[in-house]
Every structure is written in structure tokens, then in C-alpha cells.
Design goal:
single chain; 0% strand
């Protein structure tokens, strides 16, 4: 006979840590973009015949976009993890909820018969 048990409280407690990571990741991109604005253009004026500025500006935008995409991907992954944990908590909690409802129904039927 197989035995099934799960720690619903542990799953829910763990999900709070994941939610905190998600909040942190949501703030990461705006903070990164804000910080990038502080450094934009320090290499010189692009399009003014300055090859160094033209090359570095293009490189800077490419790297900035690469980091932004990585942060977006991380945020989406954490959000997916949160959804998966919520689904798992539901899968664990539903059988317990149904069992408790069945116990209450049987108890009510017993009371009604008295």
C-alpha cells in the first residue's frame, strides 16, 4: 500500500521566499536602466566623426540590451516557478480539503440521524 504525504505548510512557506526573489527581480531592471542613464555618453559624441564614441556607444547599447534581456528572462523564470509552486500547493491541499469536507458531511449526516 502506497502512502502519500506532503508538507503543505512547508510548500507555502517556501513560496514566500520565491515571491521575495520575484519582487527583487522586478525591481532589478528599472534600477539597472536608471544606473545606465548615469553613464550614457561618457565615451563621447556619437555620429560626430569620433570612431571611438561610435564604436563604444554601439557596444554599450548591445551589452545593455543583453543584460536587460537576461534580467527579463530571470524574472519570467521566477514567475513561472511561483506559478508551479502555487499549482503544487493546490494539488497537495485539495485532497486534504476534500477529505475534511467528507468528514464534515459524514458527521452532519450522523447528527441528522440522531
Amino acid at each position: 500500500m502506497a502512502e502519500y504525504s506532503a508538507d503543505l505548510e512547508g510548500i507555502l512557506k517556501g513560496s514566500k521566499h520565491i515571491a521575495a526573489a520575484f519582487e527583487g527581480s522586478r525591481k532589478m531592471l528599472p534600477e539597472f536602466e536608471k544606473t545606465c542613464q548615469n553613464f550614457y555618453g561618457w565615451w563621447g559624441e556619437e555620429g560626430e566623426g569620433d570612431e571611438f564614441a561610435d564604436k563604444l556607444g554601439e557596444n554599450y547599447r548591445g551589452k545593455r540590451e543583453s543584460v536587460a534581456e537576461a534580467v527579463k528572462g530571470f524574472t519570467e523564470a521566477v514567475e513561472g516557478l511561483i506559478n508551479a509552486v502555487a499549482d503544487q500547493a493546490g494539488s497537495v491541499g485539495r485532497p486534504q480539503q476534500y477529505a475534511m469536507e467528507d468528514i464534515d458531511n459524514v458527521a452532519s449526516e450522523g447528527e441528522a440521524r440522531r
